[in-house]
Amino acid sequence: MVSNLWLGVASIIIGYFGKRVINLVQKRKCAGKTPATYYFVGYGNIINVFLPRIPWIFAGHNVEFEAKHKPFAKAGQDIMATFSFVGPQPISIRVADPVAIKHITTSRARFPKPVAAYRLLNVYGENIISTEGDKWKMFRKISAPAFSDRNNRLVWDETVRIVSELFSDVWGDKDSVSVDHAVDVTLPIALLVIGTAGFGKRVSWKEDALAPQGFTHTFKGALHMVSNHTRIKLLVPNWVYRFSKRLDRIRCAFDELELYMKEMIEERIKSEKVERHDLLSALVDSNISEDGGQVMTEDELMGNIFIFLLAGHETTAHTLAFTFALLALYQDEQDRLFIDIQSILADDELPTYSQMPLLTRCMAVFNETLRLFPPVPGIPKFSAEDTILATTDSEGNTVNVPIEKGSACTLAVAAMHYNPKYWKDPHAFNPDRFLDPNWPRDAFLPFSSGARACLGRKFFETEGIAILTMIVSKYKISIKDDPKFAGETFEQKKKRVLQTKYSITLTPVHIPLVFTKRG
Ligand code: HEM
Ligand SMILES: *[C@@H]1O[C@H](CO)[C@@H](O)[C@H](O)[C@H]1NC(C)=O
Ligand SMILES: *[C@@H]1O[C@H](CO)[C@@H](O)[C@H](O)[C@H]1NC(C)=O
Ligand SMILES: *[C@@H]1O[C@H](CO)[C@@H](O)[C@H](O)[C@H]1NC(C)=O
User: Fold this and answer.
1) Which ligand 2 atom minimizes the distance to the CA of 184?
2) Which residue's alpha carbon is nearest to atom 19 within ligand 1?
3) Please, is 424 exposed, middle or buried when counting C-beta atoms within 10 Å of its C-beta (0-12, 13-18, 19+)?
4) Which of 289, 298, 301 to mutate to test the pocket of ligand 3 (most atoms within 8 A of CB)?
5) Would the keyword Lyase turn up in this protein's UniProt record (predicted)?
6) How far apart are CA 271 and CA 405, in angstroms?
C-alpha cells in the first residue's frame, strides 16, 4: 500500500524532471553552437527577484547589470543563450550586438513584448507598458499627444519653479545641506514634476508633509510604498494582509493611492471647462468617446495613471542620483560642467527653455550616466516566429544564431554599453565621449528604440537638464564624509557609493551627499 504510494510520487517527480531534461536537451540542440550559460533557476523566474546570483544555480535579481559585457567577451560573440532547468523560459537569447538589436526593435510584430514578464506592473490594471497589440496601440495613441513640445515647455517651467522652491523653502539659507541618500532629494523632485506637468497636481514641498484627513499616507508616501512593494502585492493574496501590521500598512497604501488617483480623475472631470492639454486630460477625455469606438475600462484608466506616475519619476530620480554621485566622485568633471553652465547662464538668472539646446555638456553628462547605469539594463522581448539573428565572432566572421519560435530574447543593454569595441575604456566616466559627433549611436539604448521606445525621453531630458543646471550652478556636490570610511581609497569609495540593486528599475543603494553653496 504505502510502497505503492511512494512509487507513484517518485514516478511523478521523475516524470517531471525527465520531461524538463528532454526539453532542455532539445532546446540546446536547436540553438546550434551558440555559447551559453546554465542556471537551475534562470531568467524570468520570480524566485530570482529575491536572490543574489549563484553561478549555475540562480541567475539572481541584478544579473543583467552585474555581468555587463564579461560573459559576451568570454563567449567571443555578442549573442548568447541562457538555459534554465526551472522557470517559465527554458531558453533565453541575450542580444548585445547593436545590429541584431536594431533588427529586433524595428520589427515589433516579429519580436513583441512578453506581456507575462510585466505582470508586476498591472497592480491597478493593464497599461501602456504592460500590453501588446491593439490594446497597446490604443493606449499609445491616447497618451502620445500629451508629450508634445508644448508640454515640454510646461515641464521646464514647472521644474524651474519646483527647484526654486526647494532652494527657498527647504534648503533655505543653509551654507551646506547634507542628505543621507541622494534619492531623498531626487525622488520628491521627480514626483513633483510628473505630478504637475502630467497630472496638474500642484503639490508644494511643505504641503505634502502631512497626510490629509482620513488618510494614513501622503500621496508621495503612498506612491513610494506601492512602488517598493508591487511584488508583495502580486504574491500575497488579499485575505492574508489583516494578519500582519506591516502587511496591513502596505495594503492601506495601495488602497489610498487608488483613492488619490480616483480623486484626481473626479476633480478633472468636474473642472473640464478649463481647457487642459496634459496627460491626465488625454487619459480622462479618451473615456468619454462618442463615436462608440473602443475606450478604456476604469481599471485600464487607473493602470495607466499609475504607470505614468511610476515610470515618470522612478527612472528619472535614480538617474539623477547616479549623476550626482558621479559628479561628486569626479570633481574635475563637475568643474567642467559648472564652467560650461556659467558661460550660458547669466549670474542669478533662472535657465529658460530656449537655452536648453545650448546645455549640451549637461546632456552629455546624463548620456554618460545612462550608459554606465541604464535604468532598464535588460529589455525583454520574445520571438514570434522561427528566425535567425546574425552577429560576428572575435575574428569578424558572421555567425548565425538560430532562434526558435517562442524563445525569450533579452536586449542586453548594459552589456552593449560596456563593450570596449564601441566604448573606449568603458568603465570610465567620460562625458566628453558624447561631445564627439561620431559617438556610436547604435550602441546606446537606455530608452529602448523603435515603436516601443520610451515615450518620456524628452520629458526626462527637459526636467533633468533644468534640475542639473540649477543645482550645479548654485551648489557644489560632494560625497558626505563618514568617519567609518576614513581610510578608504578612491576605488573603494567609488564601489561603495555606486552600488546598485534591482527593483522595478536599476536602483542606487546608498549615496550620501553634501550640497555646499558656491561662494
Ligand atoms: C531616465 C529616464 C528614463 C529612462 C531611462 C526610461 C527608459 C525606458 C525604457 C527602456 C522603456 C522600454 C521598456 C520596455 O520595453 O520594457 C521605457 C518605456 C516607457 N517609458 Fe520611459 N524611461 C525614462 C523616463 C520616462 C518618463 C519621465 C516617462 C513619462 C513621463 C516615461 C514613460 C514611459 C512609457 C509610457 C513607456 C512605454 C512606452 C510604450 O511601450 O509604448 N519614461 N522607458
Ligand atoms: C522604499 O525603498 C527605499 C530604498 O530602496 C527607501 O529608502 C524608502 O524609504 C522606501 N519607501 C517606503 C515608503 O517604503
Ligand atoms: C469610463 O467609461 C466607462 C464606460 O462608459 C464607465 O463605466 C467608467 O466609470 C468610466 N470611468 C471613469 C473613471 O470615468
Ligand atoms: C544624448 O543621447 C540622445 C539619445 O538618447 C541623443 O539624441 C543626444 O544627441 C545625445 N546628446 C548628447 C549631448 O550626448
Assistant:
1) 7
2) 454
3) exposed
4) 298
5) no
6) 50
Closest residue by CA, ligand 3 atom 8: 298
Question: What does the domain layout of the chain look like in residue ranges?
Answer: 31-121+381-417, 139-375+446-517
Q: From ligand 2's centre to the CA of 226, what distance in Å?
A: 10
- CATH C-level class of 139-375+446-517: mainly alpha
**Is 454 labelled as part of a ligand binding site?**
yes
Residues 22, 29 contacting (CB under 8 angstroms): no
List alpha helices for 279-352, DSSP H.
Answer: 279-285, 298-311, 314-329, 331-344
**Residue of the nearest CA to atom 10 in ligand 3?**
298
Q: How far apart are CA 474 and CA 515, in angstroms?
A: 9
Per-residue pLDDT of the chain (519 residues; tens, 9 = 90+): 668 888 899 998 888 888 888 888 888 888 888 888 888 887 666 666 667 788 888 887 788 899 999 999 999 999 999 988 887 788 889 999 999 999 999 999 999 999 988 888 898 999 999 999 999 999 999 999 999 988 999 999 999 999 999 999 999 989 999 999 999 999 999 999 999 999 888 777 876 678 888 899 998 888 888 888 887 877 788 888 888 898 999 999 999 999 999 998 888 888 866 667 789 988 988 866 666 655 788 899 999 999 999 998 999 999 999 999 999 999 999 999 999 999 999 878 899 999 999 999 999 999 999 999 999 999 999 999 999 999 999 888 999 999 999 999 999 999 999 999 999 999 999 999 999 999 999 999 999 999 999 999 999 999 999 999 999 999 999 999 999 999 999 999 999 999 999 888 999 999 999 999 997
